[in-house]
Amino acid sequence: MPVLVDIGCLYRCLDGGKQSDVHMLENAAVAWEDGIITWVGPQAGLPAQYAGALQHSAGGSPVIPGLVDCHTHLAFGGWRADEFELRSRGATYQEIARAGGGIRSTMRATRAAGEEELAGRAGRFLGRMLDLGVTTVEAKSGYGLTFDGELKLLSVYRRLAEVSPVQLVSTLLGAHVVPPEFEGDRGGYVTMICERMVPAAAQGLASFCDVFVEDGAFTADEARVIFEAGRAYGLRPKLHVDQLTDGAGGLLAAEVGAASADHLEYTSAEGMAAMAEAGVVAVTLPIASLYLRQPPMRARAFLDVGCDVAVATDFNPGSAPSYHLPWAMTLACTMNGMTPHEALKGATAVAARAIGMESVCGSVAVGKRADLVILEAESVNHWLYHAVPNAAQAVFVGGIRMGG
Ligand SMILES: [Zn+2]
Questions:
Q1: pLDDT for the residue numbered 404
Q2: Rounded CA gap, 387 and 294, in Å?
Q3: Which distant-in-sequence residues (6+ apart) come within 8 Å of 222 by Cβ?
Q4: Mean pLDDT across the stretch 264-293?
Q5: Most buried pick, 169, 231, 238, 265, via CB within 10 A?
Q6: What are the DSSP calls for 121-181, one per residue?
Q7: Cα(238)–Cα(175) distance, rounded to whole angstroms?
Q8: What's the 291 CA to ligand 1 centre distance in angstroms?
Q9: Distance from the alpha carbon of residue 237 to the mean position of ligand 1, in angstroms
């Protein structure tokens, strides 16, 4: 029955309520058993049964729930630093994609890489994310774009889930772009996703099914067909929408009952209201907006109509080549108009809801995993404002202190 004591301020980030409400508790303590939180409260009220417990001290520092990165493309081959240079010279994402770069470039490198190599690389990324306080990560396929290629990526995630302390949630993103083999037969590729990829992914390899709806990717009607197949196999919908143009993605997300809709730089007021009404989580990916020089997603407007906003990295080798979630949170404040407290809840409780893990993690509450981060900062405001390379002093996953 270990206990974490001397917490200067505990940010509990409980489910529900306003996103700005992070449920601060001063001079707090947290106890757990077998990795699950059993007691939270003011340290002065710690029950006698914990008197002889193994004690960890936060030394008066702030403590937050383990961070949840609810949108990454964790396993991929190669990098695209050459495209970074092209974009810095003024080329657009769409121009690079039309010339055979972009997602298709990573597809070629990923197809050429073995499962071992992909797992080794993604495992190293996960280790660094954990150092930053990220204890749960959603990971998408989407760079194989063949039946075997997509299954290979999902198998990499299953292997990592078995060995990494970080909790992984996997998503089938067979509908990232149409691969070259199906250039003249989009319908054939959609059918392959529905009839082969979805049933295979549903055998314990993925929890969600995602579609990139955009010019140059998939249409709303194709997404509807894929989600119908996904639903029949228990895969919940997620969407990449309204990133480069307004594709009425907010309305589509509400219509299909998506767990989340992500990007949303161009979502209309009507789309925002529909998402709020349907309880779809809006996910902002400010690193991608920054790298592609998109107008920032209007998180403030989403929050004002009652739609919760999660913050994630979109870690991928093209548009968001960083897994630094705290940096994305700082950008959510400077670019998306969120407060530091809203960004914190967006990368914990709200992010957990975006990946269906709200009963497991994302808050410091009895019954949830003891995923905790001690911050080297005066407060959450100070942490996200000062933006040091890594402010995580100590990270606990399921009650185990990482790094000795
Ligand atoms: Zn993405």
A1: 52
A2: 22
A3: 175, 186, 190, 211
A4: 96
A5: 238
A6: HHHHHHHHHHHTTEEEEEEE--S--SHHHHHHHHHHHHHHHHH-SSEEEEEEEEESS--GG
A7: 11
A8: 13
A9: 14
Alpha-carbon gap, residue 307 to 290, rounded angstroms:
23
How many angstroms does the Cα of residue 177 sit away from the middle of ligand 1? 12
Confidence of residue 216 (pLDDT cuts 50, 70, 90): confident
Strands (E), 49-91: 55-57, 62-65, 67-69
Q: Is the dihedral of CA 112, 116, 117, 121 positive or negative?
A: positive
Distance in Å, CA 104 to ligand 1 centroid: 14
Distance from residue 313's CA to the centre of ligand 1 (Å): 9
Pair type for strands 62-65 and 67-69: unpaired
Structure tokens at 181: 């083999």
Q: What is the DSSP string of 354-385?
A: HTT-TTTSSS--TTSB--EEEESSSSHHHHHH
| Mean pLDDT of all residues in 23-37 | 98
Q: How far is the CA of 193 from the centre of ligand 1 (A)?
A: 18
Instruction: Report the separation in Å between the CA atom of 180 and the middle of ligand 1, taken as the mean of its atom positions.
Output: 20
Q: What value does the mean pLDDT take over residues 130-138? A: 98
Percent of the chain with pLDDT over 70: 100
C-alpha 142 to ligand 1 mean position (Å): 9
Instruction: Note the pLDDT tens digit of each residue in 341-376.
Output: 999 999 999 999 999 999 999 999 999 999 999 999
What's the CA-to-centroid distance between 315 and ligand 1, angstroms? Answer: 7
Q: How far is the CA of 382 from the centre of ligand 1 (A)?
A: 29
CA of 72 to the centre of ligand 1 (A): 6
